[in-house]
Specification:
heterodimer; A: alpha+beta; Cytochrome-c3 Hydrogenase, chain B; three-stranded antiparallel beta sheet; 15 helices; 8 strands; B: alpha+beta; Alpha-Beta Plaits; 5 strands; 16% strand
Chain lengths: 370, 133
């Protein structure tokens, strides 16, 4: 911050609220202290979407919880389920069959594309590119339809369960998905010319909200936000789970560390996810899709970390030998995005840059508050 | 050299302005939305919609009650036997009750449009659950 001694005497901070009713904020309130057009400080106030999920889990059995965890982050329910069922299986000492692991990975990658496409819609809406938002939301429908076909639910699939998945993939799902992926691949070019290479978008996103790798790690950044600063960190590569050891993919990284590099990172991840899905759909192993698991889990604790669309989503569960968890701690990726990275990056920026910085981080308020 | 650079930047800007116009191809395509009351999305096979109870199969065991994550189901007396009654306002349509039913008496139908005017009519007793309307 530049300090001007003459100015300091007459400086009266003006508090500008960003959210919770701002069209670009989601359920998040940040009190922005401004000096003219410049942001002096941003104080985040979380809690508008707090539902006490970690406490609610203590009152429900493992099977009931696999339905509840969908609500941690509404936009990508499959990653939440992936984390939860894996931590329960780790405590119980069982492993889901190979087919179930493959189906889980397929659905998790579809969920990642779903989340990123919703983000494309929101980021273009936040920067005033309305037509991009409409088309992205329309394309999202195709994946929701696939969710519906495979799981029976559109937004909340309630699909993974400790021991496997709740039902097998229906006939013709592979062909339908491949068709949808071809369509999405062609749509990526449209998004490029409409949003990502749009002159307005590039000008507003480049050079704002810059942090380097060291700062990002210190602030707790994970996922595309950390990869945007050149750090090659991805749980899918570092500690592969489910069917990820079987697939070849590269981790998207960018060097610059500004808002635009984070945007390009996410855009690249959609293409990467499409290639992962094509590999998985070509040889889905045959066999059982679910094994039986006892309702009670042995005493002990386990920790599992998976890569959600926004970053690392981790579960730590303590079990006391009953059919309910004694305590579950969820580490949501959006918590650090909103509460530590966003105030840090917003400091010194212009008021108009706030939505650009906020949505380049892609926070999810339900995940932040839980 | 300077002229050339200016010319290039002008071309780049112009392309940046003209490229988004590819969106005009949507002028000729079908709209993505539907005019809801007249036409609606066809729900797929295996969709988790409203429940359907087959009273002749139900044995009143209460497994659906214990497996429900939202406590939306309770057993009520009807025609001298115990049957489930579902509060659809609490229900999250996870279909665990239908999955864990030992006699397949509870099923999920493809009915997705359930709208009511007041809270008490969200409670579906055994009689309403056994009819598909």
């Amino acid at each position: 911050m530049k300090s001007n001694p003459e100015k300091e005497e007459t400086f009266v901070p003006f508090h500008l609220p960003f959210g919770p009713q701002h069209p670009a904020s989601g359920h998040f309130y940040g009190s922005v202290k401004v000096d003219g057009e410049e942001v002096v400080e941003l104080e985040p106030y979380p809690g508008y979407l707090h539902r006490g999920l970690e406490k609610l889990m203590e009152y429900r059995t493992h099977i009931q919880n696999s339905v509840l965890v969908d609500r941690i982050c509404v936009l990508e329910p499959f990653s939440n389920e992936m984390g939860y069922v894996n931590v329960v299986e780790k405590i119980a000492g069982i492993e889901a069959p190979e087919r179930a692991q493959s189906i889980r990975t397929i659905m998790a990658e579809l969920g990642r594309i779903l989340s990123h496409i919703t983000w494309i819609a929101i980021v273009s809406l936040a920067l005033g590119l309305d037509s991009g938002a409409r088309i992205a939301l329309g394309d999202r429908e195709g994946i929701l339809r696939l969710n519906e076909v495979a799981t029976g639910g559109r937004i909340y699939p309630c699909y993974f369960i400790p021991g496997g998945v709740r039902r097998d993939l229906p006939e013709g799902f592979e062909e339908k998905t491949l068709e949808e992926l071809d369509y999405l691949k062609s749509q990526l070019n449209l998004y490029d010319s409409l949003i990502f290479r749009n002159e307005t978008f590039v000008t507003r996103m480049s050079g704002v909200g810059i942090f380097n790798a060291k700062e990002a790690i210190a602030l707790g950044a994970t996922g595309p936000n950390l990869r945007g600063c050149g750090v090659e960190s991805d749980v899918r590569k570092d500690e592969p789970y489910a069917a990820y050891p079987r697939v070849n993919f590269r981790v998207m990284t960018m060097k610059e560390g500004d808002a635009y590099s984070r945007v390009l990172c996410r855009r690249g991840e959609i293409a990467e996810s499409i290639s992962i899905l094509r590999q998985l759909l070509q040889d889905t192993p045959k066999g059982k899709f679910r094994i039986k698991m006892t309702t009670r889990t042995p005493k002990g604790n386990a920790y599992f970390c998976c890569e959600a669309a926004r970053g690392e989503l981790c579960f730590h569960m303590v079990s006391d030998g009953t059919d309910k968890p004694y305590r579950v701690k969820v580490r949501g990726p959006s918590f650090s995005h909103t509460l530590s990275e966003f105030p840090y990056l917003a400091r010194g920026a212009q008021i108009a840059d706030i939505p650009a910085i906020y949505w380049s981080l892609d926070p999810c308020p339900p995940d932040m508050d839980r | 050299m300077g002229m050339m650079a200016t010319f290039r930047s002008i071309v780049k800007r112009l392309r940046g302005i003209l490229k988004p116009l590819v969106i005009s191809r949507y002028l000729t395509t079908k709209p993505m939305t539907l005019r809801f009351p007249e036409e609606s999305l066809e729900s797929v096979q295996g969709y988790r919609g409203r429940h359907l109870l087959e009273p002749e199969k139900c044995i009143g065991c209460g497994i659906c009650v214990s497996v429900c994550p939202n406590n939306a189901i309770e057993l009520v007396e009807f025609m001298g036997q115990r049957y489930p009654q579902i509060h659809l306002g609490k229900c999250c349509f996870c279909a665990l009750c239908a999955e864990y039913c030992p006699r397949n008496a509870l099923k999920m139908t493809r009915l997705a449009t359930i709208s009511i005017f007041d809270r008490p009519s969200a409670v579906y007793g055994p009689e309403e659950l056994s009819k598909l309307l």
